[in-house]
Structure formats: C-alpha cells, structure tokens
Specification:
CATH class: Alpha Beta
Distance between the termini: 10 Å
Order of helices and strands: HHEEEHEEE
Number of helices: 3
CATH topology: STM4215-like
Number of domains: 1
CATH architecture: 2-Layer Sandwich
Oligomer: single chain
Length: 146
C-alpha cells in the first residue's frame, strides 16, 4: 500500500483569499489583493502577498509546514499604507486560525515578524508602502488519492 499523495497548498492564494474575505480589508481596498500586481492595476490602495519560503515540519508524511509570508500594503498616503498594513496584520492574527479551511489549507498558527516602512522606489515619486512578514503554520485540507 502506498502513502497518499499530499500536495501542499499555495499559501499566496490562501492568504490573498483570506484578506479578500475580511470586510475591513474590503472597506479599505475592495478586491485589490494580489499575488502579483497586474499591469493597469492603477494606484493605491492595494495589498500584495508573497511567499518568501516554506519549511516542512513533518516530511513523512508530508503534512504540516510553515510558510514565511510577506504582506505589502500600498497606500495613496503613508498614513493609509500604515493603516492598511496594521489592519491586515491584526486580522491575520485575530481571525486566520478561527477561519477553518481557507482555499486548500487549514491555518493552525501565526507568528508575527517585523513591520517595515519601505516606500516602493520603482515608482516616481516612490509609493508609500508598509510591509510585514509572518510565519504561518498550516496543513492541507485533504490528500490526493494515489
């Protein structure tokens, strides 16, 4: 008998969907939560979510993992960027574990990282941006029959 195939979830998709499901984020950015900012997305406010890397906690079976995530909050002003970043950070810590299944993952823990004021200098003038990292411990919702 072979072990079931486990496909770990796409945590960028999981976290971006989590943010889009939060009314406080929708109030601030609408549906403008991305994993890659599309051309023509226009200006701020918006959120971009990026996977920095992940670590497998259990490898046999492959199940629990920790994903280091970065959330970037762009605002039309520095104050808006800060409010958006702090709102996203607070919601992640307050609601993600209680959310149950999000996309293809179950979040079982969140550890916060630093908040950084880092304007995006790829634009002229630089866009106001705050970003923070978090380490999300999760496991897949289900396995794939092999």
């Amino acid at each position: 008998m072979t072990d079931p195939l486990v496909i770990l979830p796409n945590m960028e998709a999981v976290l971006s969907q989590f943010y889009r499901d939060q009314p406080e984020i929708v109030d601030l950015v609408g549906e403008r939560v991305y994993t890659a900012i599309p051309k023509g997305a226009g200006g701020a406010p918006l959120i971009r979510v990026t996977l920095i890397g992940d670590e497998k906690v259990t490898s046999r079976p492959l199940w629990i993992f920790r994903a280091q995530m970065q959330t970037e909050a762009y605002g039309g002003t520095k104050a808006q960027a800060h409010e958006l970043a702090r709102t996203a950070e607070g919601l992640l810590h307050a609601r993600s574990i209680a959310a149950g299944e999000i996309e293809t993952a179950v979040i079982v823990g969140v550890d916060g990282g630093p908040m950084i004021d880092l304007p995006d200098e790829e634009y002229e003038p630089a866009r106001p941006r705050f970003l923070f990292t978090s380490t999300i411990t999760a496991h897949p919702v289900a396995t794939v029959a092999s």
